[in-house]
């Protein structure tokens, strides 16, 4: 019997009707009871917390990371399944992937339909996740949803309600689950795990905020998050990662003060690329913003957060930047638009 541990955190897969809407309520054993268990598996359940995933905090995510590591101290465990709400599943999965260095898989799954809905997607997703956790050695942290296996890095929620809720806009699935077996299409390129350095007693976790550029935008929101004590900021640019000269100047001041700044894009598909000046990614990279490659905004924020947690509270700005640069190098994608010969392209 292969042992798989299910860590339950809530979300739609654990939700019931509350009179005016759905909310996470069911424990892990109830969620597991809704699904068939693949033959030959011994499944144990850990009830970690039961919340809607829109309420997940960094503290929740670090508790999940600690629990996964604790579960994997048992050599009899073949893999771990995390049941999680779909709203922030992509963020928790990516955070764990950056710190996960065990060959045994951690498989995230959830549901688009609540627990007690007839013919809902929870049983199938959980069955597929259990199967993947039992055989996905050396695949790292993955997301299993609607019959597909996705790499944590780059995979995001692409539809609010449809069963096929997750995809990597810039990549392809790792595998598929059908007819009671997992077919691997490719293996992820696992990068070395980051070291976790948490603040001591009384210390606070780093604050990382997201600011989106739009027509008519000024520096008000960027100034506000910096005044609130943000140690990291994700600027979500237009197009391939563009803003304005005023915002570029504000980013320069933030970087000079030791704040980590990463540049993402509000466009669904394609990489961030240093192609344009006039406040574009060329100027933003020149003043110290690091380009997020193919990562969307939520996972770019996780990259910044993980870099701060890895560098530790005593690290210098240069040390923090070096960690983030290494993390983002794994998400880099060469843009299809070429730059004229002899010109300079700034990149993370």
Automatic annotation (TrEMBL):
Residues 3-188 form the L-asparaginase N-terminal domain. PANTHER family: 60 KDA LYSOPHOSPHOLIPASE (PTHR11707:SF28), L-ASPARAGINASE (PTHR11707). This is asparaginase. It holds the Pfam family Asparaginase_C. SMART domains: Asparaginase (SM00870). It catalyses: L-asparagine + H2O = L-aspartate + NH4(+). The active site is at 12, 86. It is an enzyme of class 3 (hydrolase). Keywords: Hydrolase. Belongs to the asparaginase 1 family. It comes from the Bacteria. Its EC number is 3.5.1.1. It comes from Streptomyces thermolineatus. InterPro entries: AsnASE_II (IPR004550), Asp/glu_Ase-like_sf (IPR036152), Asparaginase/glutaminase-like (IPR006034), Asparaginase/glutaminase_AS1 (IPR020827), Asparaginase/glutaminase_AS2 (IPR027475), Asparaginase_C (IPR040919), L-asparaginase_C (IPR027473), L-asparaginase_N (IPR027474). Residues 207-309 form the Asparaginase/glutaminase C-terminal domain.
